[in-house]
């Protein structure tokens, strides 16, 4: 006797099976299909869990709003320093890190270039030091 493992699957109702993505159906069914739970979920369980998730989203939103108001009050009273928004472009290994980035626009000195006029920076006026 060979033991054949139980196969669990979802039948697509309004879409083709390949159009389903993670999160398209309740997590309870996802857990059952992946054999993380023994019994399939009931409609009551799915609705109860969905209501719980919605309540948690609302509580998180409320706490976040209260926190923003409290921070604003503390900033106003001078109890907490204002956040400083910094934005550094580039990578630390780039030669222009923390400085103005070089322009991406092409530049040309064709109309003002004089042969032999360019001297590398830091070399001064004399060539023999």
Molecular structure report:
With 129 residues, this protein is mainly α. Helix content is 33%, strand content 0%.
Biggest sheet descriptor: none
Rg for CA atoms = 32 Å
The residue fraction in helices comes out at 25-40%
Count of runs of 4 or more consecutive helical residues: 2
Low-confidence stretches: none
Cα distance, first to last residue?
93 Å
Give a nutshell description of this structure.
The chain is mostly helical.
Which key phrases capture this entry?
129 residues; mainly alpha
List the helices and strands and how they pair.
Blueprint: H1 27-33, H2 43-77
């Amino acid at each position: 006797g060979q033991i054949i493992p139980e196969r669990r699957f979802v039948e697509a109702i309004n879409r083709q099976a390949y159009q389903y993505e993670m999160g398209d159906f309740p997590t309870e069914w996802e857990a059952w299909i992946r054999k993380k739970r023994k019994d399939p979920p009931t409609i009551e369980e799915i609705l109860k869990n969905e209501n719980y998730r919605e309540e948690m989203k609302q509580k998180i939103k409320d706490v976040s709003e209260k926190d923003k108001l409290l921070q604003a009050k503390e900033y106003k009273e001078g109890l907490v320093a204002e956040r400083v928004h910094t934005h550094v472009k580039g990578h630390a290994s780039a030669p222009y890190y923390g400085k103005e980035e070089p322009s991406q626009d092409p530049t040309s000195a064709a109309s003002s270039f004089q042969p032999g006029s360019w001297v590398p920076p830091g070399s001064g006026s004399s060539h023999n030091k």
